[in-house]
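Translate sequence into structure tokens.
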Amino acid sequence: MKKRIITDAEQQAAQLPEDGWLDLAKLADVEVTSEDPAHPIESALLPGQGSLWHATEPGEQTIRLVFTSPQRIERIALEFVEPQTERTQQFVLSWSSDGGQSYRELVRQQWNFSPQGATQETEDYRVDLSNVTTLELKLTPDVSGGEARATLARLRLA
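Result follows.
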């Protein structure tokens, strides 16, 4: 048996390769409830645009991708980073095939961030969605109602 220790960077690269993702700049408009001008939503949606999206306000935030034409989506990758504040975040990922008139929930998940260890959450979902007109991500940065602000390191679709 051969064994090799992989680094965190190698593990992340294996999970979220930079090729094969949809070009969201060309395929979708984005709606967002809050945005720090120093950390715009493009930072999370477009490769090479920055490090993170940050909300300016605490509480639930919504990021909505409105596609210019219906899309087929087979993979959704999300990455969240929180190196400083201990908190429990919840996100809900939903999609619509009727222009946002109704949504179907794909996943609802909570994650506990801790500066002593769990500072990054990476999710990679294999899906089979046809005629997607809208994809919506709702983030509750602290389910206990604290003053934490939502962040998103990366959202990619294939």
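Note: DSSP finds three helices and eight strands in the chain.
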